[in-house]
């Protein structure tokens, strides 16, 4: 019996070593691809700003990408939802070509000015590379699921420079209100290594200037949880949750309308492209094109701008409209960075009304609107700590959990489970 036990232990150790080596290799690859992706985004964004006329090519670019997916990529068009579905119900796997398809499509979208994000691309790159790695090493079904979770964590953590949030996000996004801690250690390992790999290529993430680090109490000590501020943050978070709900519902419902109006999937991006051009003419500037992390011109609206003293009362509304239009019409990219913009902009506007530090509420809105839209409050709280520091963690937690409570069960990831049903199935029943 001792020989059998020793043999079993030796076999288990070998399995752990083998999986560890596979995870390290996969994480380095994902981090490197995300570094390439972020570099490409910087290049095409600079090109678009330098050549504003590129915007008028957005409808044709959208149709070209749509035709490319229609002819060669129908089985990967589901994107991040395919990966979540595969984790819940392992089947045919996730195709490797998902990675180049979504990477190229997202870069094209940003080159011509579509208001899309980048997390969808990072998650799909991570998931497709993880699936290919599982196939290459002939891993078992349970190991393949673990690798897919790690792929999500590595992609998310490296593209935003938030490895801890990436690991928790990969667990939290699968099932609403439940975490599967079996995958926590490998997901954290993958996310951290991918982030290291991405930074090793010289990629730098944007610094967000949050100066608020607490308030002084009567005895001169620094107070990190002021009751009045906490109450105001909770009130603002109700608005953030409603914005999350509005965003997710608007994308889903407008997408359904688009399918009815234009049954050809490859032609729908032309509608979104034309609408974006008309919206730019209405607004009179190009602040709401692309990621919107940095201002396209001095004084323009951007995520970084919302942390300063300037007041932007309607930027949240225009970013919502620009993003919903292109996502519903089928442009590739993601929702998260536009949600960051929407949250920071609404925080900027509410801070003026609630007489709060503008940078604090912009930071809380930044993470809270995404928390409500993705149903991932814990990951977003940790993201707030990694991006802005730990001093304001109580406000991040209040904002994220309250926003999530008021956003309902609507979310941007329709394959996320609610009990035994996906959000897509729950929506159809309602």
TrEMBL record:
Q: What is this protein called?
A: Voltage-gated chloride channel family protein
Q: Where found in the cell?
A: Membrane
Q: InterPro entries per the record?
A: Cl-channel_core, ClC, ClC-type_chloride_channel
Q: How does it sit in the membrane?
A: Multi-pass membrane protein
**Per UniProt, which keywords does this protein have?**
Membrane, Transmembrane, Transmembrane helix
The organism is: Gluconobacter cadivus
Record-annotated membrane-spanning stretches = 20-41, 53-72, 146-171, 222-245, 266-284, 316-341, 353-373, 393-414
Q: Answer whether the UniProt record assigns the keyword Disulfide bond to this protein.
A: no
Read off the Pfam families from this record: Voltage_CLC
């Amino acid at each position: 019996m001792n020989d059998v036990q020793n043999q079993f232990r030796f076999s288990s150790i070998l399995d752990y070593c083998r999986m560890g080596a596979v995870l390290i290799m996969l994480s380095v690859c994902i981090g490197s691809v995300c570094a390439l992706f972020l570099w490409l985004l910087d290049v095409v964004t600079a090109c678009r700003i330098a050549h504003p006329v590129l915007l008028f090519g957005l409808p044709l670019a959208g149709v070209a990408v749509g035709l490319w997916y229609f002819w060669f990529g129908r089985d990967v068009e589901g994107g991040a939802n395919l990966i979540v579905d595969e984790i819940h119900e392992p089947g045919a796997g996730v195709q490797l070509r998902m990675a180049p398809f979504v990477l190229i499509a997202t870069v094209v979208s940003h080159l011509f000015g579509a208001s899309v994000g980048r997390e969808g691309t990072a998650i799909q790159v991570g998931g497709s590379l993880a699936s290919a790695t599982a196939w290459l090493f002939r891993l078992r079904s349970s190991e393949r699921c673990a690798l897919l979770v790690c792929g999500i964590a590595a992609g998310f953590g490296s593209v935003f420079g938030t490895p801890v949030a990436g690991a928790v996000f990969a667990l939290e996004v699968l099932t609403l209100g439940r975490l599967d801690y079996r995958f926590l250690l490998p997901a954290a390992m993958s996310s951290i290594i991918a982030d290291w790999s991405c930074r090793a290529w010289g990629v730098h993430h944007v610094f967000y200037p949050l100066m608020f680090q607490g308030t002084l109490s009567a005895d001169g000590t620094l107070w990190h949880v002021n009751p009045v501020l906490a109450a105001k943050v909770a009130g603002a978070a109700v608005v953030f949750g409603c914005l999350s709900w509005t965003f997710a519902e608007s994308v889903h419902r407008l997408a359904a309308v688009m399918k009815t109006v234009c049954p050809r999937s490859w032609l729908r991006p032309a509608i979104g492209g034309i609408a974006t051009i008309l919206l730019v003419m209405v607004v009179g500037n190009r602040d709401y094109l692309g990621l919107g992390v940095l201002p396209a011109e001095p004084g323009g609206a951007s995520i970084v701008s919302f942390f300063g003293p300037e007041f932007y009362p309607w930027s949240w509304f225009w970013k919502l409209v620009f993003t919903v239009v292109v996502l519903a019409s089928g442009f590739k990219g993601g929702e998260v960075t536009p949600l960051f913009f929407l949250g920071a902009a609404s925080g900027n506007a509410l801070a003026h009304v609630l007489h709060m530090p503008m940078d604090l509420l912009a930071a809380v809105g930044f993470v809270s609107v995404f928390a409500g839209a993705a149903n991932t409050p814990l990951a977003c709280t940790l993201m707030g700590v990694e991006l802005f520091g730990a001093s304001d963690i109580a406000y991040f937690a209040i904002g994220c959990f309250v926003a999530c409570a008021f956003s309902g069960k609507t979310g941007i990831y329709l394959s996320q489970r609610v009990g035994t049903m996906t959000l897509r199935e729950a929506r159809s029943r309602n």
